[in-house]
């Protein structure tokens, strides 16, 4: 993102900026946005106080932020007014405003990738967009939906339990709560989820949506999260004893435990915008000899003691499970908020302090201990990405050190895996946070190993199947790579990294990674014996930086307390005795979590099909095995797959005489052939759907289009 261009100050624009930023703005942000000097602080504070006095705004003394009492919706209807930079940037004009909006609103071609079908928009076309208001007066838009004929974009959400006429979208980027028309008041049910239509006349200051069909299971209203939790045995509610115990432990004091005072450290806590658990934070600063980094982890071990009911329940659950509309936490939600690293509050932490030279190499052993922090700064990945891209001096050290560490990790680590929840719009911020947390986990594993304290090691090894190794070796050598002679030598992080670094130099890393993942590597797992972790490129590794959402991380933190001599908070004899059994249980629960994730993608994709029931949809032909053909839904089907028995397809579908080819009117139909299908019965609660009227797309006569020939390609 380019640097923020200051706008000229006047009282009217001050009101608009405050009303535009629903999460509130600070005086330093406004000074930069308006291009004012630091000595204008008192003047601006006086004008903001006047807004507070008249009831237009409120002031949060803890966060030092001013927020409008009636903020502008960040989901708005906008018109395409012009194109810039060779049609790679769209300038938008927000509609239905009572007065002129003085700020430039733009959307880049990257944001338009979410448009299904041709990636084009036209002049004067109406779009529903989400405004990013986190960077003060500069507005970037995210595409949300198109207005096509009489069809309006839709959004999914639920009704606020405390204010039943307020509709709250599930989309984490939409921070506004919307009103609903009086005709929908009788349909309000906070237990259920609904589709809502975005009208083209949406008023940004008084947004009213039109409630449509109920989502999920049309008969029972049971959310998909509940259906999947029951299917996979995930705990939905905590025991009464756990709730009572969590209220008690939140009163535990931590200022008399000999902790290091880190309250003057400016720690960044970076999470997705909808995150409820804030486990960790970090700080990077430049020194005379390189860099100093500080990773801080919420010290859940201070609250959750071994052998308590709360501890036993968390060990049985293992993980927090996330769904678009609901989260099943490993601990009670109130405790999760209390243990999280919240801006402005003193919190107990485990810290990892490391020192690096200018090349990103550690120059001395990490310092690990127990501390207290208070001055942490909370932000989203997108906010951190924007700060870094705007060359903000407050994160200059983060950018410089981040580029070095990320590059080093790229060459030192093994396989790169996609992780759930990655913010694709903030790749540098995401990589920086992940790199810092991996460095902290690695340091704790090495610390515990040196202190001879037992801990669950995170292992990611190759296959022990000699046939798999032989096939992998043969293919890699045919590509010109040097492969170790034995499977034992191959099962070493450094051996794999040598192959990947060579692939990096040849610009073949993606191909080589995918092949190794598919043919040789086993899924990562927990073990009691330290073993190489290919995904990180480390000889010793553990999980420690997410103790609120993962039980094994809590065990690692207890191990740290044991090594530090804090035996009251450390591992108990029972913890050590049960650790092998706990590790096996975590591996089982991890496999359950993987199945839940796959089911979640399938169930929610099918639930989105409900509104398209009876419609003709785009699809493609997948694999054909002689009797059954695979149908892959495109566009709004999110790649859902269904296998059809070809014998059940009506003529002119058929099979060739040799049984190897699919035919339509005697012509061969190949894999990936575009087809049209009519969507039949959709059952979201069972994750089932049906199709009929299957026909190749080439057989469908094109309809005349009223669309103008002039469509700038974005």
From TrEMBL:
SMART domains: RNB (SM00955). Pfam families: RNB (PF00773). One of its GO terms (biological process) is mRNA catabolic process. InterPro entries: NA-bd_OB-fold, RNase_II/R, RNR_Ribonuclease. GO terms for molecular function: 3'-5'-RNA exonuclease activity; RNA binding. Residues 259-566 form the RNB domain. GO terms for cellular component: P-body. This is RNB domain-containing protein. It comes from Micavibrio aeruginosavorus.
